[in-house]
Write a structure and sequence with these properties.
Blueprint (H helix, E strand, L loop, with lengths): L5 E2 L10 E3 L3 H6 L6 E2 L5 H4 L13 E4 L4 H12 L4 E4 L2 H7 L15
Parallel strand pairs: 1-5, 2-3, 2-4, 4-5
Length: about 110
């Protein structure tokens, strides 16, 4: 059981800002329109890009394909001072719920 909260897709507005930590090829296939993309492998050197999210009232919601990578990243981000939460079900759940998505080319999908 995670010490961090899970946020259901239904609790977020379509324009919610989420941190998407999937790799570039996954992002290109489909992502939430207002998501911030920093692949998990680049997070340590790019964590400063998250500074605008540090003083928010709501936690920074993090997503990957289905939630596995998020569980590894949340404790590290919490150590950096961020209040974080997991997007329950990840981008698979976002897509399955029919939420808006953008893609680099073609119809958005989640692999």
């Amino acid at each position: 059981m995670s010490e961090f909260p899970d946020v259901p897709v239904s609790a977020l507005p379509d324009d919610a800002v989420v941190l998407d930590i999937r790799e570039q090829d996954e992002w290109d296939l489909g992502h939430a329109p207002s998501a911030v993309h920093i692949p998990m492998s680049q997070l340590p050197e790019r964590v400063d890009e998250l500074a605008p999210f540090l003083d928010r009232d709501d936690p920074l919601v993090i997503t990957c394909r289905s939630g596995g990578r998020v569980q590894r990243v949340m404790p590290w981000l919490a150590q950096q001072g961020y209040e974080v939460a997991n997007l329950e079900g990840g981008m698979r759940a976002w897509h399955a719920a029919g939420r808006p998505m953008e893609a680099a080319a073609g119809e958005p999908t989640v692999s």
